[in-house]
Amino acid sequence: MIAVESAITLIKISENETKLIYSGQNKGINFLGKLFMKFNSTKKNQQVVDDFMQRVKVEALKEKDK
Q1: How many CB atoms within 10 Å of residue 8?
Q2: Under a CB-based contact definition with an 8 Å cutoff, are residues 17 and 29 in contact?
Q3: What gap in Å lies between CA 10 and CA 6, rounded to an integer?
Q4: Which of 5, 53, 56, 58 would you label with 17, given CA atoms 20 to 30 Å apart?
Q5: Would you write out the chain's pLDDT as a tens digit for each of its 66 residues?
Q6: Radius of gyration for the alpha carbons in the chain, expressed in angstroms and rounded
Q7: Do 2 and 31 touch, CB atoms closer than 8 A?
Q8: Percent composition of the chain: helix, strand, coil (DSSP 3-state, to 5)
Q9: String of DSSP letters for 6-31
Q10: Which stretch of DSSP H or E encloses residue 4?
Q11: What is the spatial distance between Cα 39 and Cα 34, in angstroms, rounded to a whole number?
């Protein structure tokens, strides 16, 4: 119904700093998937990515405090 592609790239900047690059794409592969993607809002997709990045940040800060 929907093909989901995503990638995460980590680049070490320094001992205490890492750059995280997240990229992804959702694509409808049949009629229902394409219809769903047409009505899915960009704002909602951005919120999903923002929530994911916030969880990554929280976990990274937990690791830093160990």
Answers
A1: 11
A2: no
A3: 14
A4: 5
A5: 889 899 999 999 998 889 999 898 888 899 888 888 888 878 888 898 899 999 999 998 888 787
A6: 16
A7: no
A8: 50, 40, 15
A9: EEEEEEEEETTEEEEEEEEEEEE-SH
A10: strand 2-14
A11: 9
Residue with structure tokens 């990515």?
Answer: 49
The two three-digit tokens of residue 22, written as one number:
């997240």
CA quadruple 32, 38, 40, 45: dihedral positive or negative? Answer: positive
Q: How many residues does the chain have?
A: 66
The burial of 2, by beta-carbon neighbours within 10 Å (0-12 exposed, 13-18 middle, 19 or more buried), is given as: middle
The pair phi, psi for residue 65, each rounded to 5°, is -80, -10
* 8 Å CB contact between 37 and 25: no
Contacts of 8 (CB under 8 A, 6+ apart): 20, 21, 22
